[in-house]
Design brief:
The protein has 320 residues and is α/β, with parallel strands linked by helices. Helix content is 36%, strand content 26%. An eight-stranded mixed sheet has the order 9-8-10-11-7-12-13-14, with helices on both faces. It has a six-stranded antiparallel sheet with strand order 3-2-1-6-5-4, covered by helices on one side.
């Protein structure tokens, strides 16, 4: 972002508040709202904790164009027909912001994925019926044993929120550990007294930050979401003196999560042999926690311990 004085930035923020309008602004201040989405048909959808998405009105095309342009202006970015995808943080509250413009879509669309206002603990998950007490006990034991935990789930299943709960448990069981966190958007919450949180930028990829992390003397390494070639760097870090980390990954079950890691590594390293990579994955990832949407509610549907790789298949001990 280019250097501008505070007064200029405040004017942009005031303009953004007006362009967001009462419906979006009310959703941003509502603690139950998880995500606000605009579709190209101008329908505005809102998802709340524990519920399905609901259409809550219309958002005019011109207003959407203006809002997206103002967000881009705040960061000195360009969003137009030649650059139709904008990925950044929403300036008003730091939520994850994704906007798509024509010609990729017929009319502007955006998603505002809100940052959690508070950390849900494992006890909260038990109270809310998302996990059982035995599941919570197993996860806590894994963190205490410094196992590397992979949190797996589909879109909007609450992977990051669950990751925050695991990090909160990590701070409880290892209050003196130095924690280094890497993410694309600031969503992770950490109350550790000795921690470093890093965010990727246009000039610094997650893979580059992971390599820099090793020089920061971390006890535990956290990655917000593994999406690319950084998977290999993370596994190597977990395997070389930095156990007890947490990462999230988009997949529908434990075995699919491991296969997804294979794919991400293969995309980044063209000469990687599947068996060699599978053995590395099986050694680095110790426990997989799967969160899913079941009948409209979130549930921990699988906890699997990775026991190894037999040359053809991953050996998983599935419980709960």
């Amino acid at each position: 972002m280019s250097m501008r004085n505070g007064e200029a930035l405040q004017r942009i923020l005031e303009k953004l508040r007006r362009e967001a309008g009462p419906k979006v602004m009310a959703s941003l201040s509502d603690p139950t709202v998880v995500e606000v989405l605009l579709n190209p048909d101008r329908n505005l959808w809102v998802e709340r904790l524990g519920g399905d998405m609901r259409c809550e009105g219309m958002f005019e095309r011109t207003a959407a164009e203006n809002l997206i342009a103002t967000v881009a202006s705040y960061y000195s970015l360009i969003a137009n027909r030649d650059n139709p995808v904008l990925e950044c943080e929403f300036p008003l509250d730091g939520s994850r912001f994704e906007a798509i413009l024509p010609p990729v879509v017929e009319s502007p669309a955006f998603s505002i994925r809100k940052r959690a206002l508070r950390t849900h603990t494992l006890s909260d998950y038990v109270t809310d019926g998302i996990m059982t007490q035995s599941q919570a006990d197993r996860i806590r034991a894994a963190i205490n044993e410094r196992l590397n935990v992979l949190v797996v789930g589909g879109t909007s299943t609450g992977k990051t929120t669950l990751g925050n709960a695991l990090i909160d448990t990590m701070v409880d069981v290892s209050p003196d550990h130095r924690i280094v966190i890497i993410e694309d958007t600031r969503e992770i919450q950490c109350r550790a007294k000795n921690s470093v949180q890093m965010k990727t930028s246009e000039s610094k990829s997650m893979n580059q930050l992971l390599r820099a992390t090793l020089r920061l003397r971390p006890d535990r390494i956290i990655v917000g979401e593994v999406r690319g070639g950084e998977a290999l760097s993370l596994l190597k870090a977990w395997n070389t003196g930095h156990p007890g980390g947490i990462a999230t990954l988009h997949a529908n079950n434990a075995r699919a999560g491991l296969i997804r890691l294979e794919q991400l590594i293969a995309e980044a390293v063209s000469d990687a042999g599947n068996r060699q990579m599978s053995s590395l994955i099986a050694e680095a990832v110790n426990l997989i926690v799967v969160i899913s949407k079941v009948a409209g509610s979130r549930k921990i549907t699988e906890i699997a311990q990775v026991k190894g790789f037999d040359g053809a298949n991953y050996l998983l001990e599935e419980r709960f």
